[in-house]
Amino acid sequence: MTFPRLKVGLYASLVLAVFVLASYKLYRRNDTSIPQKDEVLIKAMLQGLSAAHYQPERIDDNFSKRVFDLYLKRVDVNKKFLLASDVTQLRRYQADIDDQVHRGTHEFLDMTTQLMDQRTKEIQALYRDILAKPFEFTTDESYQSEPDKTTFPADKAAQREEWRKYLKFQTMIRVSEMMDEQAKRKEKSNATASTANNIVATAEPDRTPVQMEAEARKRVLKYLNEQFNDMSQTDANERLASYANTIANTYDPHTEYFAPRQKDDFDEALTGRFEGIGASLQEKDGQIKVADLLPGSASYRQGELKAGDIILRVAQGPAEPVSVEGLRLDKAVALIKGKKGTEVRLTVKKLDGTIKVIPIIRDVVIREETYAQSVLINDSGKKIGYIRLPGFYADFNDNNGGRSSADDVKKELAKLKQENAQGVVLDLRFNGGGSLQDAVEMAGLFFDSGPVVQVRSGQGQASILNDRDPSVQYGGPLVILVNKYSASASEILAAAIQDYKRGVIMGSASTYGKGTVQRIFDLDDAMPAEFNNIKPFGSLKLTTQKFYRINGGSTQFKGVVPDIILPDVFSYLDEGEKESDYPLKWDEITSARYRVWNTPALPIDKLKTSSQARVAASPSFKLIGDMVQRRRKRKDDTMVSLKLATFRAEQTEAKAESDKYEQIEKGIQPLNIAPLAFDLKQWGPDSVKVNRNLRFTKSLKKDVTLREAVAVVKDQI
């Protein structure tokens, strides 16, 4: 994600004007009928995409084919429902979707929905029939687990056989898990008996293979019943939203349609704030259960709602309660969330079986774990600051109390300077991006004023976004950690630091490769009052610009290649911009004028050579490299044996590999990590904040990548 943290300006106003014009054209048609919501939504959305997208597409037969292929891929991703004859029937619409858009119809969507509904009912009866009979796991047969290597079944007999293998595979997995659980219980029971002078405690009796197989089929049946129950709750509006999003995604992977509720979820992810009660919920056995309460939240302060409570009904204040039993989790959550200061009344079943109505006044919920955090690492007498930044968050709605990632990192750097940190590691691993402006401001914390990134729309000259603050918040040794999931704003920051030679970029072979800028437009703002009765329409996030490094190259598609590449356990996965559907391609423009950091000059080659020597001598990194090679081979070998003995032998081999890494990890000397003195003073006796920090640091202590980053920082001190 990369979004400008700006108020709506002239450009946005012009785009909204395009939407307004399109909607008026829809309303002022020659016929007297008022268009339906689906017609208005699709036409207005496409009008805006044609006018404002970075690389607008012609609405023609090629457009139709892209929409057809992508929607078919998504509606039956595992090729488990539609028959080859169904696909043939749908293919007659392959070159007609553009004409349907112009007519204001969607026959392809309607026919796909009709066929999927029909096949879903048939498959529900089919899996129940297959699971009513035992499986045997001694026959030499296999199951293709990769949908891209399969085809739609030729007929119902072939479909039944495919489902038989799939259900047998799912059952076999659960049987194997039960065998492992039983073996662990036996081992624990034997150990207990040995330490208790052979006094054997009462233990759960062993289950026979037949009993395990029967239990495993029950679990698979329960899982599928829940899945199909969720599918049955998909309504016409959700199908339309999915179809609209597919159309948007054919322009590029980051152009998306958001239904109204999806836009709220997106805002929460970007800001780390939402309004509600602050309870984490889960769906289990058709019931909505409270999994956890966020410390300090409205439900936590109210005190009556507890983990384990089952929510039966939800009422908005004094209104009549609505049952949520059997309801899909996202639909139940939508009922419970609401504006700050409003009341929700939950009818819950407590652990002791009593029924209670719990009134809660909703409030702002803050997810602290989404914000920047720092600690101090003491290594051989050297103090190294560590900052984790999960995302480039910003409050686009200018809410009071909203936070900026650039401001927060600036504060963390100030605290580390107070601790006399001699170097800093900024961790952007798994950071998907966010606010473009925050990336620019954050880069400026590490060097004096100058260009940070170039931004260009589909036509015209690139504009340069500069850090205009001549002050340097931190000028010492700097390492930025990235991996293949570091994207967008993370890549802007890493690229700028690399181009200025201000710090060392370390991590996997390349970052994600998302080099585009998106803006979000509320479609309701574009619709005239005549459409009020069919609002809300949702929002459109569309790609309006590409960003380029100050050296002229785009991070789009290729990403940022680190100065020091480390073995990475995720490198065997084919993920990144270039693996997505319809990505924009890499290109380059003229370099901006900038001056590299030379106080002192960064000895990249020397640092790289020293790091490579340490990595080559490290048993942990060697094991990671070996694991990647084996996992890549297993990933490519997607045929799975349905013979239990063979399957378990493969699982045992994989577990032995994992255990080997765990043993080496146990032998690693943990990093000496401590919270900052400033933070300890702020937390005081607040155990919630202290425990949050303990959870934060636990995984860092034996992080071999972080340890190597610390070593590279020390090489510069």
Automatic annotation (TrEMBL):
Pfam families in the record: DUF3340, PDZ, Peptidase_S41, TSP_NTD
Superkingdom field: Bacteria
SUPFAM superfamilies noted in UniProt: ClpP/crotonase, PDZ domain-like
Any single biological process term in GO: proteolysis
NCBIfam families named among the record's database cross-references: prc (TIGR00225)
Family from the record: Belongs to the peptidase S41A family.
Name of the protein this chain belongs to: Tail-specific protease
Native source species: Hymenobacter crusticola
